[in-house]
Amino acid sequence: MLIVTTTMYLSRIRKQLLFLGVLWIAPMAIAQEIPQSDPVSTAPQAAYLQLTHSQSHERAQSDDLVYLNFSIENTSDRISKDISVQIVITEGTFIEAYSQDLGTYNESRGLWQLPQLQAEESAILSFSLLMNANQDIDFQVFIFNVGNISMENKASSIQGKIKWVEEDCLIVFNDFSQTEKGQKRGLYADCATEYPNNFLQVFDRWGALVYEKENYDNSWTGKRHPKFTKFGREELLEGTYYYVLSFPESDRAEKTGWIYISE
Fold first, then answer.
1. What is the pTM of this model?
2. Could you state, in order of their start, the residue ranges of all structural domains in the chain?
């Protein structure tokens, strides 16, 4: 009888332990089945931070005021924090002024620091620079640091130049006097060939176009362009004419003036 009672008691304990074991194991199993969410990243890769720029001049003369604008945009859907952008400008260039809509700029270090950029947010840093004589303005901009991680590969960077040019080399001479050989000198624009795709137009005093030439090479001698001869003779009448020399692919302003053609 004692043996039966003991066996039944042990069997009951075994069942209780198994039941408690199931209760202990089940939460562990449930916990393992629930996927753990990754912590939200706040620092997208540098590839998502895009740098762009614009500049007021391709060429400039001494003491010209030129402008540079640098923009950084977070193209990802996450916040980017602790961004540092390095700005390198030719040593000796005088910075007239600078401003930024976000972050702070340290002029002595050339470092633009932004605490954060929201998703699809952008920021702009602008400079006003004074052009020195005999010196181009070279610039390089790159993302130096994101989220305290050094961007040694300079994944996003830009570089460019504003070229210094001598005092206006583009002088137009409207000398149509006779040469020793009896040929007219014509309209001569000094260093015009340095501006690819320049465009010359000449109008009479009534505003009618009498001559035009793309990539003007100082070859006009005062005659009407062949395609305009239906409006008059090739030899232009004596009188005052007006020219416009433009530079579509340059920031240089067009040159305008008048010329007098004598018989």
1. 0.52
2. 46-164, 172-261
